[in-house]
Amino acid sequence: MQTALFLSQLLNGLLDGFYYLLIALGLSLIFSLGGILNLAHGAFFAVGAYMAVVLTPYVGFFGAVLIGPVIVAGMGAVTERLLFTKFYRIDPLYSLLLTFGLAMVLEQSMRWIFGAAPLAYNIPDILRGQVFFGEFIYSRYRIFTIAVAVVVVAALWVLLNRTAFGRIVKAGIQNPDILGTLGISLRPYLSAVAAIGIGLAGLAGILMAPIQPVHPAMGGSVLVAAFVVVVIGGLGSFWGVVWAAMLVGLVKGLMGALDLTAWSLASIYLLMFLVLLVRPRGLMGERILRFE
Amino acid sequence: MLRIHPVLIAIPALAALPFALVYMGLTTTSATEVVIFAMAAMGLNLLVGYTGLVSFGHGAWFGMGAYTAGLVALSLPGTPFLLPVLASLVLAAVVSAGFGMLMLRRSGVYFSLMTLALSALAFTVAFRWTDVTGGENGLGGIQRPVWGALDLNDGWSFYWLVAAIALVVIFVLWRLVTSPLGAVLEAIRENETRAVALGYDVLRYKLAAFMMSACVTALAGSLLVFKNRLTSAEPMSVIFSGELLAMVVIGGMRGYLGPALGALFYIMFREYLSIYTDNWLLWFGLIFMGFVFFAREGLAGLGRQFIERFFPGPETGAAMADRKTEVMPLPPMLSGTGDGGAVLEARGIGKSFGAFRAVDAVQLKVMDRTLHALIGPNGAGKTTTFNLLTGMVPPDEGTVTLGGASLVGVLPNKAAQLGIGRSFQITSLFPDLSVRENVRLAVQASHNGRMNPWRSVRQFDEIEDETGQMLRWVGLAGIEDARASSLSYGGQRLLDLALALASRPRLLLADEPLAGLSAAERERVGNLLKQVSESLPVLLVEHDIDRVFQLSDHVTVMNEGKVLIDGTVAEVRNDDRVREIYIGSGTTEVAEMAHHAVGDTVLAKIEGINVHYGKSHILQDVSFDIREGEILALLGRNGAGKSTVLKALLGIAPVTSGSIELAGRQLVGLESAAIARAGVGYVPQGRGLFAGMTVRQNLELGRIRRRTGAGSHWSEDEILEFFPRLGERMDTDADRLSGGEQQMAAVARALSGDTRLLLLDEPFEGLAPAVVEQLFVSFDKLRDKLSIVIVDHNLDLALALSDRTVALETGKVFHEGPSRELAQDIDLRRKVLWL
């Protein structure tokens, strides 16, 4: 029984890792192409969760999972067009300030519309209950979410590595000036990447809504965790972010399994601090001289 | 910079504040809160506005100050006040010193992210360490003392105490900000690299600012705990840190009292708007974003702009004209103390970048009181050598000594302290500071008082005197108060020279000091350098060969990473080998191509193109045309502007006036993607292939958006007919190809789209002769279908390949004519390309 409990805690941690991955990948993408560190990413996560609450009465849970991220992605594209464009080539600190303000505004907007109290939102009936693997019991819903996350990350990988779109994005990350001389304007890709990245955060929010209290400030801790992942994995590296997300998730799970949940958050913040100190480009990232 | 001492503004403001707020329906508690937050915001601004380090976690210091004061107050008998407050200051100082030494090694965004992590960490600890901090419930039961007749439980009395403390803080911070240490903080914000190059140990200064900032904010926190009589983890949250930052940004980062204004704004906003709506923070957030977007200078900045509209400052344009520019004698501070002999000696230095040997067994000796020039064609290794000499890049082998002390592996600020003075090729000043402040910082760097945090900068007579000497000598007297960024390009170069010399170096290293200057300005700077060389040794890298020969005492010529010849001006000037590396030998291993008769149909018309990079006028009224079916060579010495012409054609250089017409379409003003789609293909210097992608994928990228019909169309098969070798390499990663194959791939990528004009930037660079010949033949065959413009420093090849040549010199078209003439007539070549 002990091992089963231990395992399930670890698995929960891994699940958390997948959420962090969805958010961190979006964060990393937006940053790699445009150089903007989006401090409002956590807020979009919260927006996604609220989308789930709002859409489910009309299109059901699965409908919300399909449509919600698209709406949030649309918001992302609009944000990029209206706000980010001016900040690409100037001192990166201003983009930090801008997105910080955006996060504040988004959070307060949600507070205004929905109130500060957490909203009730439940796991849909069809996904309730447990699945048994011999002695090991695990929540059906959580398995569903892991499955969705894996599919989405795989799809993203295919998009980035096996399509022309992905090649253009990678070329744009390497050398945006040369890309211009090949007749390819980067602007629509910047919008697309912002939309995808923010849409991913929205998706994570929708998936989290049934198992976490939905309230306006829910994006806060998720944001810092996502930053931890991106920093550890390395700004600009796909696989680095994947490994880091799993690592952070496991650490959290481990802390839970060892009954030290109170300190799990503190430990990952400390980890981020240490990585920034020793090797700011993370495990697999590139050196970004603009940031040093 | 404030003209009035801020304390004189603060006293009436602090006196009036409680009355004003009470009149408006608020209480003294609100007034006290304004003052406390103002202190915290000003503390944060020391870091953000003055030093340029953005902290997202200053709430941590605030909360830490509150908890420390609270805990100490509760653990001592009676109702202490001073001891808790002092305890919070001491703890903040110790903790900030510890963390600062770790964190300040990183700058910019990484530093900011670390503050975010630290703040989140501190909050979690405060929240969870319930035994000490009371966790969610916080710490309560703190009491305010009664001092004889003064009962601090009364709102008014407590306000006056807090106001008095604030006044002291304002005074002390002002002393800091106007001291030599404060000046260095601003230098770090403006241009950390230059501050280091002047010899400052920037980490120490940043640490001082960090500690002071933490202590002031912690002090504010400790006062808050007495105001509220309780505290919680809330002030340590990232949200509160964000609110502090918002106060700083909205109030104005660059004004001394700006953040205080921001705090006032915040409190009033909160108090008033919360009457109408619960969501006042939403509107506050929108206003914050508005300021970041439209008015980064904040309220204080808006105020300043408003004042300047009605009371404008002195016009720099007119002031520049009034500038005194007579020749002054060398200032006494620069009189050399040397005894002759070699000052800088490099023995057998070498450097490789991967397989590329940039510098090979270079020997160099700079003698005292000489003007020693280092020249050589593009790619000779001069810049790398220069960096090896200054300590910016460590040599793989060999030694570099300055007056006996080794410079190998020495950090730039240490090199400066050892006596290296360096002027930069790309202007590197402190842009927002005045001319005088710029020079003073350089002078200050070698003085003992440089870390003094208390005395006003103006009180250091010796520094003031030397600053004045430098300003007068270099010719900037009369415009000392102008912002460095507002000077003309020539003025900025003079200022750069002043900065390099103001720290009284043992040796001046000047990196292309004449680049981009007009003839008159070159004369002036040249004379200044000559004057300096009468007292100190000067090592100069320059492309203006005429002037180099005029000014120098000794010349070293480099080519392909090695020293070709080292001797007097006469020796170098008459040496055939030197001439050859600049103007070629007149013969080429590749047979001259049979030139087609080139028609007169104009494909592209370039008229009156001017390009400015900031203040520097790089291209002046460049005009020429490109005919159909021709190969045009763009030649000229380094720095002449050849690459810039290509970039102007491509839309990646800022064209300020002029017109470029390609097949009837105006290209100026279009973005580079549109120009590419209009039929302009580009093969960049260094090839610019995308790593991690195969040749096929690179070609695909060249094709996707350029199948527009705007030029001759090449199918993949046709391209591979031209470059059969590529056919075998289609699925190899681009970075695994040989140099020649990469060059072919880059050309193929350009041809994958419809092209009518192909631009080649240094296509033969670094290639073996056999490959060069292959490429040469390919380019020649291409001319049937499109026109080519080629820039290459291998003159023989470029002249043999091309039909016509346009020669540039300092951004102007200097000569235009058939390439054959230049190829065959060595005298003409010498006239156009040598002297």
Report on the structure:
The complex is a heterodimer of chains A (292) and B (835). Chain A has 292 residues and is mostly helical. Chain A has one domain: ABC transporter involved in vitamin B12 uptake, BtuC. Helices cover 73% and strands 3% of the residues of chain A. Chain A contains ten helices and two strands. Chain A has a two-stranded antiparallel sheet with strand order 1-2. In chain A, strand 1 and strand 2 form a beta hairpin. Chain A starts with a helix and ends in a 14-residue tail after the last helix. With 835 residues, chain B is of the alpha/beta class. Helices cover 50% and strands 17% of the residues of chain B. Chain B has a six-stranded mixed beta sheet, sandwiched between helices. In chain B, helix 1 runs antiparallel to helix 2. The interface between A and B is large, with 54 and 66 residues.
What structural keywords apply?
heterodimer; A: 292 residues; mainly alpha; ABC transporter involved in vitamin B12 uptake, BtuC; two-stranded antiparallel sheet; 73% helix; B: 835 residues; alpha/beta; 6-stranded mixed beta sheet; 33 helices
